[in-house]
Design brief:
CATH topology of the largest domain: Jelly Rolls
CATH class of the largest domain: Mainly Beta
Radius of gyration: 18 Å
Distance between the termini: 27 Å
CATH superfamily of the largest domain: Jelly Rolls
Shape: globular
Order of helices and strands: HHEEEEEHEEHHHEHHEEH
Strand content: 15-25%
Strand order of the largest sheet: 1-7-2-5
Number of strands: 10
């Protein structure tokens, strides 16, 4: 796992604030409890109390809720540099579960450590609040996508958003990115059936816009995808540091 100075989280937070040496030192302290988790086993489960938050260093995680009929709704996917369970650690119980999609490395952050870090470095606290607000903005976009976008635009918007998020932490670009998600993950996230996901991905491939094959998303016509999805990345707030 990287040092905090070179971590994916630091790179992400630097889109909002230029971190000082003291702030990097506090961030390093938050990375001390380093753990690994196997794929397919919940790190945090829905209804759990007194749980920790995590800083994801490597690998992908999905956050989801199980409905009364047993179906799963994926709320979002977490990628390196993301906090997991930041909201849940401040509530009495977690309102959703976190499951690693692949084996992951993460730093466990206790509530007491998080509050101490906030007290020591208010600017770092503001940057982490920015990251949490950005995550909330993405959930709003996902709600709009499921409720209002047709399947092609919904898929294109989602894959473009993932590309922008990964580019921010140095593991994606306008050419594409590695992606371990299955068609079943996409179905549970986008409110589609797996068969419909397969059909949409085929249509996007045949139209020459993108290919999702063997764990890699390749953008063939980025501008056309932007137009199809009506993708405006302003909600991701990645234009550069606001605080110096």
């Amino acid at each position: 796992m990287r040092s905090a100075e070179h971590s994916r989280l630091t790179r992400k937070l630097s889109a909002f604030v230029a971190l000082s040496g003291a702030e990097l030192a506090v961030l390093e302290q938050l990375h001390q409890r380093r753990r690994t988790f196997a794929a397919g086993r919940d790190m945090v489960h829905q209804g759990q109390s007194d749980q920790a938050a995590y800083i994801l260093s490597s690998g992908w995680v999905c956050s989801y809720k199980i409905q009364p009929d047993g179906t799963r709704q994926i709320i979002d996917f977490q990628v390196p540099g993301d906090f997991l369970g930041l909201r849940s650690v401040l509530l009495r119980t977690s309102d959703h579960s976190f499951e690693p999609i692949v084996p992951i490395e993460a730093a466990e952050v206790l509530k007491s450590d998080l509050l101490a870090a906030f007290a020591q470095t208010p600017r770092l606290a503001t940057a982490i609040l920015w990251a949490a607000s950005r995550d909330e903005a993405m959930v709003v976009e996902h709600l709009v996508g499921v409720g209002r976008r047709d399947a092609d635009a919904r898929m294109a918007h989602f894959l473009l958003e993932l590309g922008s998020r990964l580019a921010l932490v140095g593991i994606g670009s306008k050419e594409g990115y590695d992606c371990p998600l299955t068609q079943y993950h996409l179905a549970d996230a986008l409110g589609l059936s797996a068969i419909h996901v397969n059909r949409v991905l085929r249509q996007l491939r045949e139209s020459g816009m993108l290919t999702f094959r063997e764990g890699h998303v390749t953008f063939h016509n980025y501008d056309q995808l932007l137009e199809l999805a009506e993708f405006d990345p302003a909600y991701l707030d990645q234009s550069g540091p606001l605080l110096k």
